[in-house]
Specification:
With 233 residues, the chain is α/β, with parallel strands linked by helices. It has one domain: Rossmann fold (3-Layer(aba) Sandwich). It is 30% helix and 23% strand. The protein contains 8 helices and 11 strands. The strands form 3 sheets. It has a 7-stranded mixed sheet with strand order 5-4-3-6-7-11-10, sandwiched between helices. The protein has a two-stranded antiparallel ribbon with strand order 1-2. The protein has a two-stranded antiparallel ribbon with strand order 8-9. Strand 6, helix 7 and strand 7 form a beta-alpha-beta unit. The longest helix is centred in the N-terminal third of the chain and has 12 residues.
Length: 233
């Protein structure tokens, strides 16, 4: 497709991610390029990505899958179910459009989080579990499944709450109490995420020590892919 045809196709869809497709075209995502740049640095900079295998759980439009490939990942598998089958989001169509325009060798599989396992999708050096935890009715099972796929590092980004509590805890949001979204179920605190990851066998967990509305954690099984000295075990 030429630039005009790509731009016309982009206009036909709703977008959450702002993806640079080249030709001066950036998808009009609700998440801005500036936010993506900050998040990509937070997620990927601590990891030596060159030659890695990566699974992106809940890929949606695919920005973080594409970013992993751009940063040198050898193999990337994008998975989703909810957004890829949502009548309004049309996530699989947007992912396929962006993947095609970018010409990236990225695999895709429609599979929901409760069905993830090493037997079904394999294991990966890096597992991305970004903006997924709090959307799951059973988030602990979802985190356990994501952890089972991670050979080296699991990256979690999530809404958090109860920052004033030292003990591990989560708040439940009935119906659409959080941001008017009925799929926003839980608000864990930092201690909750850390202790859950501890029980799942990670030997080092990097993440925030102060409360915030969103948090990023890197759970390491070894220091093989750690870039910074602070992440080394």
């Amino acid at each position: 497709m030429d630039a005009a045809a790509i731009a016309e196709k982009v206009r036909q869809y709703p977008w959450f991610h702002s993806i640079d497709l080249g030709h001066g075209i950036i998808t009009p995502g609700a998440k801005t390029p500036e936010i993506h740049a900050k998040e990509a640095a937070a997620f990927f900079d601590p990891i030596s990505m060159s030659g890695c295998t990566v699974v992106d759980i809940g890929a949606w439009n695919g920005f973080y899958s594409f970013e992993a490939k751009r940063r040198g990942a050898q193999r990337v598998l994008s998975t989703d179910h909810f957004c890829w089958n949502h009548q309004h989001f049309r996530g699989r169509e947007t992912f396929e459009l962006a993947r095609s325009v970018l010409g990236l060798d990225i695999e895709a599989r429609d599979i929901d989080v409760p069905h993830l396992s090493p037997e079904k999708v394999g294991t990966f050096d890096v597992v991305l579990f970004l903006g997924v935890f709090y959307h799951l009715f059973d988030p602990i099972d979802g985190l356990r499944r994501a952890a089972s796929l991670a050979k080296e590092v699991l990256v979690i980004e999530t809404h958090t709450a109860l920052g004033e509590m030292d003990r591990p805890a989560m708040v439940m949001y009935p119906r659409d109490e959080l941001d008017g979204d009925p799929t926003n179920w839980w608000g864990p605190n930092n201690a909750c995420i850390r202790e859950l990851l501890n029980t799942m066998g990670f030997v080092k967990i990097d993440g925030p020590t102060t409360p915030a509305a969103r948090a990023v954690f890197h759970a390491w099984r070894s220091s093989r892919l750690a870039v910074s000295a602070s992440a080394r075990i």
